[in-house]
Amino acid sequence: KAGRTAAEGVVVMAQSDDGKAAVLVEVNSETDFVAKDDNFKAFADKVAQIALNSGAATIEDLLAAEYEAGKTVEEARQEYYYSKEKKKKKSILDKLFHFGD
Predict the structure, then answer these.
(1) How far is residue 75's CA from residue 84's CA, in Å, rounded to a whole number?
(2) 3-state secondary structure string, 42-82?
(3) How do residues 77-95 score in pLDDT, each as one tens digit?
(4) Tens of pLDDT along 56-78?
(5) Backbone angles phi, psi at 29, to 5 degrees
(6) Radius of gyration in angstroms for the set of CA atoms belonging to the chain, rounded to a whole number
(7) What Cα–Cα distance (Å) separates residue 34 from each residue in 44, 73, 88?
(8) Cα within 13 Å of Cα(77), Cβ side
């Protein structure tokens, strides 16, 4: 699976309440089926909000940021991508862009 490309996904935006700052985050998966899943979209939206609120400057910073109590974004990403059948699905937080403040 290491050689597979995660080329399907979503680009999501989170914006501050005052509209002065925003981030775009690209989250990819191996298949469009996964990328269209509501859980995948909810994960991507939450990660974008975390990127905005944490001030993460790089993907590495974002992966190390807190996803929820006691869990980083990277740990949540790894946990999310194990299906009930224990088949790992490749996912990548690929790009992070900041705008404004």
Answers:
(1) 17
(2) HHHHHHHHHHHHHCCCCHHHHHHCEEECCEEHHHHHHHHCE
(3) 888 776 544 454 555 666 7
(4) 989 999 999 999 999 999 998 88
(5) -140, 175
(6) 13
(7) 12, 18, 12
(8) 21
How many C-beta atoms lie closer than 10 Å to residue 28's C-beta?
20
What is the bridge-based pairing of β-strands 71-72 and 21-29? Answer: unpaired
Listed in sequence order, the residues at least 6 apart from 52 whose beta carbon sits closer than 8 Å to its beta carbon are: 14, 15, 16, 21, 22, 23
DSSP 8-state class, residue 20: S
86: left (phi over 0), alpha (psi -120 to 50) or beta: left
96 Cβ contact partners less than 8 Å away, ≥ 6 residues apart: 23, 24, 25, 26, 51, 56, 57, 58, 59, 62
